[in-house]
Design brief:
By secondary structure, the protein is mainly β. The protein is built from no helices and eleven strands. The strands form two sheets. Strands 2, 4, 5, 6, 9, 10 and 11 form a seven-stranded mixed sheet that branches. Strands 1-3-8-7 form a four-stranded antiparallel sheet, with no helix packed on it. The N and C termini lie far apart (about 40 Å).
Amino acid sequence: QVQLVESGGGLVQAGGSLRLSCAASGRTFSSYAMGWFRQAPGKEREFVAAISGSGGTTYYSDSVKGRFTISRDSAKNTVYLKMNTLKPDDTAVYSCAAAGGSLRHLYYTGRLTAYDVWGRGTQVTVSS
């Protein structure tokens, strides 16, 4: 089973940019659709973006569309989330997830149950 480790979080001013990385172990990385989620203090985890196993299809939540870009590099077994024009409301712990279970075909919906492997997350803090 794939294992996931996120990196790239930090403190940034509003309007700034960050790129998050999610490194995956395992030989079957390309068979997993991948997603990014975030959870702010006191709030439920929410869907941010998803990408198909081939990398050819991407999906975004309305709150980040046009500002965030998800991508993947199969040679490096890594998924990225480039975040531009960051806002204080983007402050959260960002986690990547892999969709490899029986509900993996629902990865594009952002449904949490479509994902069966999760990283521990990386903190992103946007100051005003």
